């Protein structure tokens, strides 16, 4: 016990919280909605560096260059996890706390809604005066009136639980001590069901997203026409996987790109892209498959999406000794809608002399303009490649990863022409050019196309879809479910017949939110069915 001084006069014994008390207090703070909102904002702020600064998993070369260019801040940001934000301990801590906070907020609410859903319908009020009741005389027996009202309100068919009322019938005494049959009907349990479904689905979404980040893998690969891709980590251009997914689980299927068809209109706008391929799965016969935009190839529980395409000119390059130093297709990246494409050719394996590097620009349909040659159409109507050559050290032996689409010119010198200016040579399909100073030759052999594929496998997507649909359905039920109350009272005691000879005076009333005026029509319909007497809404109610 601790002693606390109060008003400078007395002391009170205050119990210490202890370990259990502090844990309970911490849990209540973490699971409060205020802390959940703070953590959500913190998570959004923490993600900003991941989109601004270079990240190791996405681009190791740019990240290393950033550290080298910033000798003080680079190592500091790297040591504190800002160059691998989404894999850092502090980002994971925020995410885990947010997850725990949301679960802690939702689970108690699920219990509340479940209890409300299963709770008994409250009895009818002792007085209906404040609900503007209607009284109708009938010659039907009280039990018959109440049973007819029950049947009308309960509904029928398979959707009765959603559209009907929950009904309770009691026999009790009225204010004058006379026995009455009291029917109390409540509609609004669908709203509680919607709230329950929404919160359970929200938990499902959180669990599916967390499980997906652990069990999924994703990779990108670029395949040239005639080439083959094997589903292995080393074959991907980029690859990322969750912590619980093992590379050994990759199914070794093979995808061969047979042909890529690109159809363009007269204005150059794309009309259709189709990748024709052959898929060979282990233990199965090869089968022909096609990939189009938004029509992926299905394989091994994954989907292979067609993400891009372009040209991959095939070159044969000889060195100063006349030996073939490079031969193959090089993907060029499109830069605009008419497929003006840029590429880099690196030739490190020369027999003698310095290494060679080339920067090139492909114009599929080359035409002259006031600003120089441009491409007028994506098709290969008049293809021309403008080539710049470099000699020196390509930097491939430094151990630092390089972008295959960029040429590191820090240790290279441009090849110069007779005028002393850097050489820029136009090269047409099928032509061979000879480089100055006996550096070798370059031959443009052909122009196959390439297709860029994005493969994604996430086994939790069906669960995520189901939880999302459940959340939307629950939200719709909670927002649009009607909240209505209808009460019907029928006296059991003997009554004096009225002028029309009817002996049972039935009283009915209803309640709904102010915007729901249709409840009066429903009350009148129930009263008409129960008593067999047409009830007209009074002018005052209209």
Distance between the termini: 67 Å
β content, as a range? 25-35%
Tell me about the biggest sheet? 6 strands, antiparallel
Spatial shape: elongated
Q: Please count the helical segments.
A: 10
**Structural class from helices and strands?**
alpha+beta
Cα radius of gyration in angstroms: 39 Å
Look at the structure and give the mean pLDDT: 88
Helix content: 25-40%
| Total beta strands | 28
| Poorly predicted runs | 538-542
Number of domains: 4
Structural write-up:
The two termini are 67 Å apart. The strands form 7 sheets. Strands 16, 17, 18, 21, 22 and 23 form a 6-stranded antiparallel β-sheet that branches. By secondary structure, the protein is of the alpha+beta class. Strand 1 and strand 2 form a beta hairpin. The chain folds into 4 domains: 18-117, no CATH class; 120-187 and 482-531, 2-Layer Sandwich (TATA-Binding Protein), CATH 3.30.310; 212-311 and 452-468, no CATH class; 314-447, no CATH class. It has 10 helices and 28 strands.
List keywords for this structure.
542 residues, alpha+beta, TATA-Binding Protein, 4 domains, 6-stranded antiparallel sheet, 5-stranded antiparallel sheet, 10 helices, 28 strands
Structure summary:
By secondary structure, the protein is an alpha+beta fold. It is built from ten helices and 28 strands.
Topology, element by element:
Elements: E1 2-6, E2 10-14, H1 18-30, H2 33-52, H3 60-69, H4 73-79, H5 89-118, E3 134-138, H6 142-154, H7 160-163, E4 166-173, E5 179-187, H8 189-215, E6 217-224, E7 228-230, E8 238-241, E9 254-264, E10 270-280, E11 287-292, E12 297-299, E13 302-311, E14 314-318, E15 324-329, E16 333-334, E17 341-347, E18 355-363, E19 366-367, E20 374-375, E21 384-392, E22 412-414, E23 424-428, E24 432-435, E25 440-446, E26 449-457, H9 461-480, E27 484-491, E28 504-511, H10 518-531
Antiparallel strand pairs: 1-2, 3-28, 4-5, 5-27, 6-8, 6-26, 7-9, 9-10, 10-11, 12-13, 13-26, 14-15, 14-25, 16-17, 17-18, 18-21, 19-20, 21-22, 21-23, 24-25, 27-28
Helix pairs in contact: 2-5, 3-4, 5-8, 6-10, 8-9
